[in-house]
Write a structure and sequence with these properties.
This protein is an alpha+beta fold and about 1000 residues long. Helix content is about 45%, strand content about 20%. It has 39 helices and 38 strands. Strands 13, 25, 26, 27, 28, 29 and 30 form a 7-stranded antiparallel beta sheet that branches. The longest helix has 26 residues, at about 105-130. The two termini are about 35 Å apart.
Length: about 1000
């Protein structure tokens, strides 16, 4: 595993290195520190490291006084020295080396060489993919440049500071890299190195596994990153892991003290330093003798057996593929039958359409590709390969996976799109979807009939007439939105409104006018709660999914069923609410259904500045950017009772002016401190909430579910201390969604014993079924099957290959954790039970409970509000409940609260963005408080991340624009095929995206063919 740690200061580092030559001399015969990296080579630094050269580099000075400067002179005082990326091997590998040094010195030398080679593979990956610097352009904007060079050294150590054997390689990386655009050196931007550190660990691990397997040793994976050499004595591993036990004990103590489930990486590093002993002089012979004596005492003969555990053939990954209650003999017979009849063949159109001799690598890269493309239209190559690495067997090296990735790209399935996202790619399947959506919008221009004559609409929309009929008065923006719904002659039109402009009020009037002229409005939305808001305006509504399923079924059946549905929609305006939450796949299905049902007019309503849906793409933005017929509602009403500066802050953010918005919000922002951990932030959120709640109804809104849980725990403690919440508790086994992608859901590798599955039909039955939750008691990865058991003990096998053939999932997957509830607790439903009237997100409180029953009262303003129910203590609906003290920004979207306390810190990474800040701050009606760790750092993070999902076509289009710009600089002319492609793009694509084009002419030539191939394959 690779673990990064910061070298705090050049001066401190120099003293540290000078103190005992820790990195320079190595230890007990270990090799000295050796220079590595292209950046070091460019500076003429090769071979053994000289101490004063290392100290100069860490201080930001070139050891060669005649060489290029490494930092700007004015920044030297603030120069950060660097980072130590430490590659630690599993304890079983360390023990094998120790044993080989005694019994087979030549093997020991080879093994240490394998470790250094794996370390080299890890560092080469890091250098080639994540070495980045930041530069400021002529307009003052900061951008990132991939440099592909590092300055680092590597040295192997074999002991912990506690004296246990522990083989690890230190890689101190200097804060220096060469910008290939300018040839000048500058500071490293390590964000990507930290973000993808799991990949870096996996690259080193898989390389070392492959080399050990070549020596005849088998390996066994223990988790995502954990693994050991198969057959290693567990007694020896435990005996020689005292340092790990010491650190883990410190981490557990700190977590308990802070009231959190685990400590952060920074806190774990702090514990390592606080408990670290000074390394004294190491005499290898003395340690070797001590280790041998300890090993013989704990497990006699185990060290010698470790060396002899080799086979003449290549070792294997012996990780169990039959887990739990799976009979091996039956599984073997089942595999023979299923292999013969084809039942074990996976549905993988990507692999089927690609000629790849490395089928093992191809299968897991395809899995990574299919999984990643479900979440985003433009994904990182590193995410795809991370998923492939995690799914692969031990010993499958990164080089093999990258080669398979390149073959997918050559076959046309993968297209570079890296202008906005570093190493970004999209897929031809995604481009097919987006091209179809854009094409539908284009074909719909001017294609809608006149729904209401201009004269009739003018008469119906007169303010006094609207007031007389509905009792409502519209703002200018609301009136424009209502008119646009009824007047646009485009089949697809957009009514965009900022958060809180009163879209529901405008819809009431629109529906009134439509019905008076023989028209109907039918609303669809991505979530039940959004559909319910539409119904409050007097408009019929359904979720997008239920509408699409019904329509698609009618289109499949045809005949009278289809004709009846077409007749129903012949004079209907289909209104799509919260359109920013629609994904590419949903929009693709929608435009096909609109064509199939011949719906005359579709109106998209939403706010593109808010958070998108959980799937791939941003079709609402794509439609707007392609000049769809649109009106804007920008007169915010929600904050009419709020102070002027808060109302103006939300207005500015809605307009995209986030720097101004943050400045206006500043009086309502509180910084806890740069070094504050998540627990400290949660504590301040709770106290701010209690202060505001004393004045008005207040809601806590957080960025992540982890913070939601932490805030809930802290607030419950406060309420129990005050007596508002009973201290008498009972535990409920709560289910947490695993959030698997569809590709992962139909793959047995992603399931563990104890996971829960629930039939999706169970939530919509005539009554909530008893024993709807089944527990996974066996996993058969050879046959891609699960064995599940109900609470009544009934067992059955689930064939995931059959599940993959279904159009939509038949079940959802959960993990289970117990959480306490008490009388007075505020709760929410985490699932929808339509037969009982329980809506997802619906609030209720615990009134009373005993060993047999839990009495609840429904809260809020829905049809269930105020109703008291007595549920059985074993009612399975309770397993789908959670604390209602805080909600995430995604859940809060579309809601209004008098007071809002929200948190956003610099520790959130990509989750700290403009869209999330806009959603959080715009929920307020009267007051708000933002809690952060360090406002300056958080603001910098927010202002460089808009939080918007990318449009793949935009990314490709920007690549073409950059190519033309480069051609203009060099005097080159584009080929005729490039021009033809640009013209075709102009018909349906804006220039507002970004994409990579390393070899754009070749890719441009092939892209149309690739898309056609994907369409032919059904992708």
């Amino acid at each position: 595993m690779m673990t990064p740690s910061r070298i705090r200061s050049a001066a401190g580092a120099a003293d540290y290195y000078a103190k005992d030559d820790y990195y320079i001399e190595g230890e007990a015969g270990a090799p000295n520190l050796e220079w590595g990296g292209q950046g070091a080579a460019d500076l003429g630094l090769k071979g053994k490291v000289d101490a004063k050269d290392l100290r100069a580099i860490l201080d930001g000075r070139n050891p060669d006084p005649n060489g290029p400067a490494l930092t700007d002179s004015e920044n030297k005082a603030k120069h950060h020295a660097g980072w130590d990326f430490t590659f630690a091997v599993p304890k079983s590998v360390t023990l094998l080396v120790i044993a080989a040094e005694k019994h087979d010195p030549e093997l020991a030398d080879r093994l240490k060489g394998h470790v250094m080679a794996a370390n080299k593979a890890m560092m080469s990956y890091l250098e080639a993919n994540h070495a980045v610097t930041r530069v400021r352009d002529e307009q003052g904007a900061v951008r990132e440049v991939q440099t592909k060079n590092l300055v680092y050294g590597s040295v192997m150590h074999v002991t912990t500071r506690g004296g246990d054997p522990h083989l690890h390689v230190h890689n101190p990386i200097a804060n220096v890299t060469k910008n290939p655009e300018t040839g000048k050196f500058g500071a490293l931007e390590t964000r990507h190195m930290y973000k993808w550190q799991k990949n870096t660990s996996l690259v080193g691990a898989r390389e070392l596994q492959s080399r050990l397997m070549a020596e005849g040793y088998s390996i066994e994976r223990k988790g995502e990153l954990a693994w050991e050499i198969a057959g290693t004595s567990t007694k020896l591993i435990q005996e020689f892991s005292s340092r790990s036990r010491e650190i883990n004990a410190g981490a557990e103590a700190l977590a308990a003290e802070r009231g959190v489930s685990s400590v952060s990486d920074e806190q774990r590093t702090m514990i390592q330093k606080q408990t670290r002993k000074t390394k004294g002089d190491v005499v290898r012979e003395v340690l070797q003798k001590e280790w041998s004596e300890r090993a013989e005492k704990v497990d006699p003969g185990a060290l010698a057996q470790q060396v002899a555990a080799r086979t003449l053939e290549r070792g294997q990954d012996v990780t169990a593929k039959l887990i739990g209650a799976i009979n091996p003999a039956i599984a073997k017979l089942r595999k023979m039958v299923r292999d013969h009849n084809g039942s074990n063949a996976r549905i993988d159109l990507y692999a089927r359409a690609t000629n790849d001799p490395d089928k093992e690598a191809q299968a897991v890269v395809s899995l990574g590709l299919r999984s990643a493309e479900e979440r985003d239209a433009v994904v990182s190559k590193h995410l795809i390969l991370q998923k492939a690495l995690l799914a692969s067997d031990g010993g499958v090296t990164y080089d093999r996976l990258e080669a398979s990735f390149d073959r997918f790209a050559k076959a046309g399935h993968i297209v570079e799109a890296d202008r906005t996202r570093m190493a970004g790619v999209t897929t031809a399947r995604t481009l097919v979807r987006e091209t179809a959506i854009v094409g539908a919008i284009e074909r719909g221009r001017g294609a809608a009939p006149e729904l209401i004559s201009a004269a009739a609409l003018d008469k119906a929309m007169r303010p006094e007439a609207v007031k007389d009929r509905t009792g409502l008065s519209l703002t200018k923006g609301q009136a424009a939105g209502a008119r646009h719904m009824l007047q646009s002659r485009d089949r697809y039109a957009v009514v965009e409104g900022l958060a809180g402009v009163g879209k529901t009020t405008a819809l009431r009037v629109t529906n009134d006018v439509a019905e008076r002229h023989g028209l109907h409005i039918f609303g669809i939305a991505s979530q039940h709660r959004f559909a319910e808001e539409i119904r409050k305006a007097g408009v019929g509504a359904a979720t997008v999914e239920s509408f699409l399923r019904k329509a698609e079924r009618a289109m499949e059946v045809g005949g009278q069923r289809l004709e009846r549905l077409r007749a129903n929609f012949a004079k209907t305006i289909l209104m799509v609410d919260e359109s920013s939450t629609l994904t590419n796949e949903t929009m693709y299905r929608l435009v096909n259904v609109v064509d199939g049902l011949r719906i005359p007019a579709v109106r998209f309503q939403g706010d593109r500045g808010q958070l998108g849906g959980p799937g791939a793409g941003n079709p609402f933005k794509a439609i707007i950017d392609r000049k769809a017929d649109r009106v804007m509602m920008d007169e915010i009403l929600r904050q009419s009772q709020a102070p002027t500066h808060l109302r103006d802050a939300v207005q500015r953010m809605g307009e995209g002016k986030f720097k101004e918005g943050l400045t206006l919000l500043r009086p309502n922002i509180e910084s806890v401190g740069r070094d504050a951990d998540q627990a400290a932030i949660a504590d301040r959120v709770v106290s701010a909430y209690l202060e505001m709640q004393a004045q008005r109804d207040t809601q806590i809104v957080v960025a992540t579910n982890a913070m939601r849980g932490l805030v809930s725990a802290r607030l419950r403690n406060q309420l129990q201390d005050s007596g508002a919440l009973s201290r008498s508790e009972r535990e409920v086994d709560r289910l947490y969604a695993k959030n698997l992608s569809r590709a992962e859901q139909v793959d047995a590798r992603f399931y563990a014993l104890g996971d829960k599955i629930v039939s999706n039909d169970a939530f919509a039955g005539a009554a909530t079924p008893r024993h709807m939750v089944e527990t996974i008691v066996g996993v058969d990865r050879d046959n891609n099957m699960l064995k599940v058991r109900s609470d009544k003990g009934r067992e059955r096998m689930v064939d995931l290959n059959d599940e993959a053939a279904r159009r939509s999932p038949s079940f959802s997957t959960f993990t289970e954790r117990a959480h306490p509830i008490a009388a007075g607790d505020r709760m929410v439903w985490e699932a929808r039970f339509s037969d009982r009237g329980y809506e997802r997100g619906g609030a209720f409180s615990i009134v009373a409970m005993d060993s047999k029953a839990v009495t609840i009262r429904h809260e809020g303003q829905g049809a269930m509000a105020g109703k008291v129910e007595k549920l059985s203590a074993t009612d399975e609906a309770l397993r789908f409940s959670g604390y209602g003290y805080a909600m995430t920004a995604d859940r809060a979207q579309g809601s209004t609260f008098k007071g809002v306390v929200f948190e956003m810190s610099s520790k959130l990474g990509e989750a700290a963005n403009m869209a999330r800040l806009y959603v959080m701050s715009s929920r307020l009606a009267e007051d708000a408080k933002m809690i952060t760790d360090d406002l300056s750092r958080t603001a910098q993070l927010i202002l460089r991340q808009d939080g918007q999902k990318l449009v793949a076509l935009d990314e490709i289009r920007r690549a073409e624009a950059e190519l033309r710009k480069d051609d203009a600089k060099t005097g080159a002319t584009a080929s005729e095929k490039d021009k033809e492609f640009s013209k075709s793009m102009d018909k349906g694509m804006s220039s507002s995206g970004g994409a990579g084009a390393e070899r754009p002419k070749t890719r441009t030539k092939e892209r149309d063919t690739q898309i056609q191939q994907q369409q032919n394959l059904g992708l």
